[in-house]
Amino acid sequence: MRLVYTVGLIALFLGAVLRPTVSRATHVRAGEITTRRLPGPSLTYEITLTTYYDEQTGKQAADDANRYTFCFGDGTTAEVERTIRRFINGRTSSVNVYRTTHTYPGPGAYTIGVQIPNRNKGTKNLPPPGNSDQITFYVSTTILINAALQVNSTPVMLNPPLDSARVGQKFCHNPAAYDADGDSLAYRLSKPQEGITNSCRSRFIPAYLDPTSFSRSSEAGSTPTFTINPQTGELCWDAPGEEGQYNFAFIVEEWRNGILIGEITRDMQIIVVDRPNKRPQIQGGELCVEAGTLIQRAITATDPDGQPVIITAYGGPFNVNSEGIPFPNGQNIVAPPFARLINGGIPQAQPASATFSWQTNCNQVRTEPYDITFKATDVPPRGTPALVSFATLRVRIVGPSVKNLTARPTATASGRAIQLNWSQYTCGGDSTKLIIYRKEGCTPFTPQACVVGLPASLGYQEIARVPIGTTTYIDTTSLRRGVSYSYRIVARYPGINGGVGIASTEACLELPLLAPVLTQVTVDSTGTTNGRITVRWTRPLGLQPGDLGAPYQYRLQRATALDGTNFTTVATINTNLQPNVVDTVYIDRGLNTTANAYRYRLEFYYTGTNGQLTRLDVTDPASSVRLGVTPGQRQVSLSWQANTPWSNDNQVHDVYRSRTGPNGPFNKIAEVRVQGPQTYVFTDTGTDGFVADGNTSRVLSADSNYCYRVMTRGRYADAKLATIGLLANYSQINCATPTDTTRPCAPRLGMDSLNCANLTNESFCNETTFTNRLRWQSTSGPTCDPNIASYKIYYARYVQDTPAELASVPAPTMTFNHTSLTTVAGCYYVTAVSQRGLESLPSNRVCNDACPALALPNVFTPNGDGKNDLFQPVRCPRFVESINLIVFNRYGTKVYEGTTPTLAWDGKATDGTDLPSGLYYYQVNVRYAVVDRNAPAQVLKGWVQILREGVSMR
């Protein structure tokens, strides 16, 4: 996963503000940027640029590198002065520190970048060769400011980025990154960047070459590699193939609670030589201890050439920076006391040995391990560069367990209670909390070394959190007699990555059984006013003669609903617990078991020394079984539930059905094995799966009402109640009528349609209304309802339209005459409707179309004698909707245009004047009443002779 940030104004051109402070700086070897948020409400960060300069070929530029411009990622910049310049590696290089503070305007993601001109010369994988001093140096760091992150610092890199390597040997580097906040770190490769002139932008150097471009093979003779371990950060080039100077970059990602909250880019340089020297060897490992343990870990290193070896170490527990200088008070990156490396930093004959020593304490507990990076450096003869190897020791520090946890029964004003006690816990500060967990049943569990918390598979639930100084707790939450309760305590440490400690040993206690136990709440009859429930219970378990004073008393209480709490006393039964006396059953009458479930509990009283009845205990409540029914398509779905102190899971429940109503008889039709709370269900499709009492299998009808009841079986989980056996309880009776959504089959439709070829010129003469005659047939199928009550006829004037309901006729009529039509054109379909009112799918769609016809004369005499005065169709025009007439004289001039439902031109021009006798040409556009709304008009063209002045046409 990569972190992508969008920061406004980051590409702001800053002109001369970003000008370099020297005209030709050629000195930068490596560097990175780190940040630290300062305490307080403001979003102020301390930002540090650490760079490494070439003090041989670039000394003049290094002398002049007194200030550089920081781009803060929020659109602002500042010039920052150099605060530290310290020479290293025999004054061939220097480490330089530029530090400033900056306050950000608000939450967001910000990328801080610094551009330095220029890199030192001679870097082989930044071609062209010898011109790396013409490439600027650029590093950046991205931070996420978020209120949920609280105060946060980026990781610091405690191992300098300058090392030597040998041709043909695997080279490794570890930055020894450490995050003071305990965030998780991950590593990935990147590429060196260069700044873009006069801006806060950068880009990957286009000419950059992967180091393997300069490799011939790995140390073992296989394909060369260039990789970084995503967990430890160990970067390895296996193996350099040419002498020279090389730069590469990698990114350290900072993660918290699965969210990427920042990343740092380190751009570093190594020098590869080809000398007869082999790198030393050193081993790491993993270690986990409880806080307070003194760690004394021997670290050994060897050299294949037999040369002396220097062992050094880097990591947050040492609380020193990459120069070996302690962090100032108030800025410690780890809580004291700090770790030491005894015999580190000095040449030793091999095998060289140093001791990693760290007196841990509770302030150092955290979720993430501490990574200790050990570095072995050989000491070759003068003139041969030293080689190095790295190894990582991952150290986890976990909190110890709470000690001496005990549990004992007690009593409070609210009833049953268990009191816990333990030794005072001192590992942690005031913000450390102790989490108390509980579960039913004793669970032998011994945590393995350094396994913290409680596995979820054990089933413990948190019931309380108490301050670190607490040594006692009283649990009063839903405790039941005869049940064993297991308790454990786990410490939770403060801070974002504080984590939890090792779980305490178990304290397990069973509350004694001195009270009765409910064993049955069964519905005997169902009714709104005469419902009846039988309640049964045991005599007090564990109560021995003489334990308490007699006489005794049961008080049965009832509440409404499965989880009702409005208990009222419905029966008081006095008893001396004498044998053969029936005192453990009560029939509760006059209930509305149709609408309600009922919940019962039993109080038990004894006679105290003062002669007064005193309540000893009360049973856990138990409800009646509540059955629900849901009608479906020729089926009924059942579901039931109960709220009882015994479990009805993993038992067989019986389902009963009556086909004749709530008064029965009821037949058992199924045995349902329920596995858990979601499996108290059954669907009745009419099949009888239990025929010992008669086979009542038959398809369920929507015309019948079916009634059901369920008998559940249950058992107490506690072994001491196993002798009670299975507990059987009936639900109330509940009835339902199945639905039936079976539709009739779609009819098959036919119609008397016109045959245009058989029509004569006189067909439909003088007819103004028409009739379409429909006829259809019913169809059948195995999934169709044959009980048809009526048919619906649907009609659409045009084929493009959706038919709408036209009429309905009762079955068995299967014809219909659609009358009073102005045209026979139209489309139809028919549906069948069942006696339940369910409509079939549409029948086939049938359409009728008109047979258009129109003929025009070629002469008329508009002389007013009443004979042939109009230019109009001859014989019998059929199904004409509209006519548009355009008339031209013999010179092509339009003299008339008009549109009418029927053609009847009187020989006048458009302006109403009579046209003279003569030959005229016409174009008639005719639209017919056909079934296609979009049918084009028919175009008729011809000539007509107008005759006036005494001419009469007979």
UniProtKB/TrEMBL annotation:
Residues 57-118 form the PKD domain. InterPro entries: FN3_sf (IPR036116), Ig-like_fold (IPR013783), PKD_dom (IPR000601), T9SS_type_B (IPR026341). Pfam families: CHU_C. It comes from the Bacteria. This is Gliding motility-associated C-terminal domain-containing protein.
